[in-house]
Design brief:
about 50 residues
Length: about 50
């Protein structure tokens, strides 16, 4: 892969199509538990305020 040069448009990344499913799976594998932890912490904060 060449570096981007001034005045040239970047090429389409058709070479990485085989990596997209893996990348999406890895992203969502880490994103879902993090989101669940955030939701649980927000709920616990709300419950502490109401007590």
């Amino acid at each position: 892969m060449a570096n981007k040069k001034n005045g040239q448009l970047p090429q389409t990344k058709s070479w990485d199509k085989h990596l997209r499913k893996i990348g999406k799976r890895i992203f969502w594998k880490t994103e879902r538990p993090t989101e669940k932890k955030m939701i649980i912490s927000e709920i616990s904060e709300i419950l502490k305020r109401t007590e």
